[in-house]
Structure formats: C-alpha cells, structure tokens
Inverse folding.
C-alpha cells in the first residue's frame, strides 16, 4: 500500500488556480511580486511546475481579473480586491450584517461629516499643513486631526520649509484599506470634479527657495539650523499631546448611532 506522501497529486490546470489558492491561503495580502517569487521558488524545487514560473506580472494580474469575474459570476459572498497594490480575498460588504451577528460585533462607527471633510482635504491635497486645512474648512481642526491620526488614517509625512516649519500630513495605507482603494489615483475616478493635487506641486509649495548667503553667513546659518533641529520635539508627541478629552464645542468624530428601527446602509 502506498504511503500518503508518495501519492502523486494532479497539477493545477491553470495559473489562475494557483494564484487563487495563494491569495486565499495567505495570512496577509499578497503583491504581484510576492506571487511571482513563490512561483519561481517552487519551480526550483519541482521542475514539473516550471511553466508557472514563467508567468509575467501581466499574467498574474490577468489571473486576478479572471478570479474576480468568476467570484462575481457565482455570487459566493466573497470577492478579490486590490488595496494599496496588495490582493486579498474578503467578504462582500452586503453580507456584513450577518457576519457581525455571527462574530458578535457591533456596527462599526461611521466618521462624522466634519471628520470626512478633513480627511478628504488631506487625501486630495497631501502633503498639506494644518493651517491650509483650517483655511479651507474655516474652523480649527486640532481635535479632528488628532483623532484621524489615532485611527491611523492620517500620518505626518514631513515638515514644511515655510516659517515655523509646520508639520505636513498625508494619508496612510490604512486609509486605502478603510475605503477599499487600490491607490490614491482612484480618488480622481470617484468624483471627476475633484482631482488630486500632484505631489511634486504640493512639495514645491512647502519648499523654501534657495537663497545666496553672503560671506561668512554659512557658518552662522548652519549653526543656527543645527541648534534649532536639535531642539525640535518628537512630532507624534507634539501633535497628539496628552490624553485629554476634547473641548465641549469640538466637532464630533463619529456619526451618532442610528435610531431604533432606522435602516442603515
């Protein structure tokens, strides 16, 4: 009688079959490069799988497209999505209420309109300083900005060269994950009337123009900059500050809970 490990298993019939198994069985979202590396590594161990090692990035993406269409066709309640250049299998949002009941989870809090407005400004205009956000919204955003950072939707991406060297903010990978975006370019497709600013143009706004220093000024300027840099506080600590409650008149971060009997999306 043959041992179980000696039984020859049939080879997959297509690259799509292999890619689907990898994405489903992975403990984290996979990139195209990760999938191709797995295909090559396995081919080195088993020559019979060499045909899959020749798959190009386009071939892998075509396999992903085929899986996406097949899942849509059979309607299993799961879908293949790309978020931030990584692929994963997840349940469809329309089935969320049954999953929450099974997992004993409450409906997640929805961001309030002020929080969404602030987040949208950052997403479309990043990198952006707090003063610019407040200039657009017409209100202070300290509390909202702090909350968005604590939710890992916004992060500090640098400092401006403008006077005071304010912090510059941008979105995170969690932002893409939260809204189901492949990349930031998809923001332009969501609303044709809104177009994301070019990062190079935004960086130019916050870049200090080069100035010619007079004789003997370089040493003084460099020393002052060095002293100033050494005294800079930790940016995260400076923005988040102590764990204090928001002021009574602060804008809400989340929408109020739905009334009993009210249908929610």
């Amino acid at each position: 009688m043959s041992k179980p490990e000696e039984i020859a298993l049939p080879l997959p019939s297509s690259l799509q079959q292999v890619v689907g198994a990898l994405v489903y069985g992975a403990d984290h979202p996979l990139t195209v490069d990760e999938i191709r590396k797995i295909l090559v590594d396995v081919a080195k161990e088993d020559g019979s799988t060499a045909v899959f090692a020749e798959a190009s990035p386009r071939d892998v993406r075509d396999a992903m497209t085929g899986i996406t269409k097949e899942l849509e066709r059979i309607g299993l309640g799961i879908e293949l999505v790309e978020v931030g250049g990584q692929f994963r299998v997840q349940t469809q949002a329309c089935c969320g209420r049954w999953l929450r009941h099974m997992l004993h989870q409450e409906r997640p809090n929805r961001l309030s309109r002020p929080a969404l407005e602030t987040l949208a400004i950052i997403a479309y205009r990043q990198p952006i300083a707090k003063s610019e956000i407040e200039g657009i919204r017409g209100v202070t955003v300290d509390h909202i900005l702090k909350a968005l950072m604590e939710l890992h939707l916004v992060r500090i991406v640098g400092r401006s060269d403008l006077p005071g060297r304010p912090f510059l903010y941008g979105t995170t990978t969690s932002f893409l994950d939260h809204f189901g975006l492949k990349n930031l370019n998809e923001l332009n497709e969501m609303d044709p009337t809104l177009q994301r600013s070019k990062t190079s143009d935004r960086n130019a706004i916050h870049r200090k123009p080069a100035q010619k220093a007079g004789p003997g000024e370089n040493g003084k300027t460099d020393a002052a900059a060095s002293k100033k840099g050494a005294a800079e506080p930790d940016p995260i600590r400076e923005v988040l500050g102590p764990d204090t409650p928001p002021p009574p008149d602060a804008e809400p971060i989340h929408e109020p809970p739905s009334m009993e009997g009210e249908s929610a999306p």
Notes: The radius of gyration is 25 Å.
